[in-house]
Design brief:
single chain, 460 residues, alpha/beta, Rossmann fold, Nucleotidyltransferase, domain 5, 14 strands
Amino acid sequence: MERDDGLVARLRALAPEERRAVLDAESEAHVRAFDCDWGNWVRVGQAPPEGEWTVWVMLAGRGFGKTRAGAEWVSQKAREHPGAKIALVAATPEEARRVMIEGRGGLFAAARDGAERRLMRWEPGLGRLTFASGAEAWVYSGADGESLRGAEHDFAWCDELAKWKRAQAAWDNLMMGLRAGDMPQAVVTTTPRSVPALRAVLDGVGVVRSGGRTIDNPHNAPAFVEWNERTYGGTLLGRQELLGELLEDVQGALFRRELLEKARVKGVMGDSYFQHGGTHPRTAAGESNCPFRRVVIGVDPPASAAGDACGIVACGMGFDGIAYVVGDHSAAGLSPEQWARKVAGAAARWAADRVVAEGNQGGEMVAAVLRGAGLQLAVKIVHARVGKTRRAEPIAAFFESGEAKLAGRFPELEDELAGLIVGGSYAGPGRSPDRADAAIWALTELLLAPQPAAPRITRL
């Protein structure tokens, strides 16, 4: 039965509840027609970009629906161009067949109906897939760039380019042969990894980009999403594989992302830490149950309420002699009184024994407001005499040696630390690394400041 475009249009305009009622009353053929129409299911990030482009790169988390989007794009091109030659490039020919052609989101699954699927012919020996229209797709390996030399194509679909073994050679030969038809185009569907070939593709001319997160796909099993978020959420791997972020080290980074990931630990505060959502655990009597010898709150005040964020970071010195970043309470858009009270709240939450605040931008306000709030806590005002990166260099050395660690996941703070460059510049998010600077002040107090002598008894 031919597709009823009028019904499809009406169904698209209905709310989900109304649409379900209409479908229940329709024939099975009509329901199947609606179900098989990709336009009814495509989400933001999966739809081909508008306008003229040469390469569309879809960077997305696992389970986002990259493969299905790529298969649907190729299938549509095959319908529109019966004589087209299409390149299917994967890490290996086996992966091309298993994922791009026969997979749950592959080209067979993207067939519009049973008739279209029956007319498709797959010839594994030749590595050729012939579509119902007569268009042909040829399988290539990203590990064998020479196999793409000389071949001409109208379109190309490259899957998981970031894991190809000889990606640059394969990509160069593919693009040199992408010269057939009126508007040759290539689609890249990949989970991001900071590899040279992918960066080169993204920096190319005529490249557009889209993507999304694992959680954006409502068809993923909830248990899968929950487990991955609980296990990897906020980590370098999780941001890459679940959020689809391309995380790169800037040249000369003082805190490499690999270094920060290796410095990450769990369980420093014990089970109660995670059960309380990161708040300071206390006994029923209200006494501190903190496993740190001391806790310091580092503060980097903003110049104005409309300016940068106020960096507020809690760090603790463990009984194991290691300094831990335990909490990031930074906030933007607050008045001096508001962010100072936020500092007081962080100090109370972590039972801190000291606040270290930079005085260059009004750190004295912190001391005044804390005293006004009746908080009996030592406030140390420090003045920056060298640049932020110079102050961070010895702290980076402590991370390298394992004497400083991250007790949890702090994506915004980590992005700022990763933006500090040897030599004094900053290439991270925002105008200034406020969170990073607050953390550096607190860790400097714990690791480098002279510690008060322990009390002792002197016999007279």
